[in-house]
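Working notes for the structural subgroup meeting. M.R. asked for a predicted model of this chain before we commit to crystallization trials. I am recording the input and output together here so anyone reviewing the notebook later can reproduce the run.

Input as submitted:
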Amino acid sequence: MNTNHGATARGRVTGLPEWDRCGVMGVVNVTPDSFSDGGRWFDTTTAVKRGLDLVAQGADLVDVGGESTRPGATRVDAEEELRRVVPVVRGLAAEGVVVSVDTMRAEVAAQAVAAGARLVNDVSGGLADPGMIPAVAAAEVPFVVMHWRGFSAGMNSLAVYEDVVAEVTAELRDRIDAVIAGGIAPERLVVDPGLGFAKNAEHDLALVAHLRELRELGFPLLVAASRKRFLGRVLAGDGAAPPPARERDAATAAVSAIAAHEGAWAVRVHEVRATADAVRVARAVEGAL
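Returned structure, recorded in token form:
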């Protein structure tokens, strides 16, 4: 067996379970306006049931978010985000689910952790709220550092790169250094290249093609390609309209297989079953080397 694969190569995250393959993070959006499934899981009971369904389909952990980060989205206030997120986190954690909270606010992160969340997934990498890094450090939970250049309302204008792989890697390295300096332990960090955030389709494809370079940052890698615009562009071809977000799940599973092969720690997806199959096949192929 090739010893360059498996849990050791993918990295371990203190405070979370270990898998012998790429993990699968299922998404529960408790929002009315997410780009792919806004409004489908908006009330607490439905959202908790959705999270449990994702686990039954093969999700290793469930990421709960109450604020849309689709391109052009405007922010909700903290009170509304808390109302949406905390009861869902509490309900899933009570059922034994490993829960991640997807938030850019320190207050939401802290209350979600108190309700049972075991990972904070901040798409801004701690840049949106100066209180985030101290809050996560105090809570002693893992933290996802995503590549981010600005809020959703204006991020398309920030998608300017000369060398997207080199620049994303350098900006992530700077952010990792700041997060560690802020008190979050290195063994609790996960990095995410931020596909679709201040990036166009060509940028996203280049990053997927160079996941190995991103892994050289030395931290577990989360890849969140699910249903994103670049997949719609690939599927549509030149000049055609992209298929709706919910028709991009097979393409998402293809990226999941690529990410698993390249040693990603986990992939974040809206529909779990195909990706759960994909990462298990990738692991079986690794085991046959």
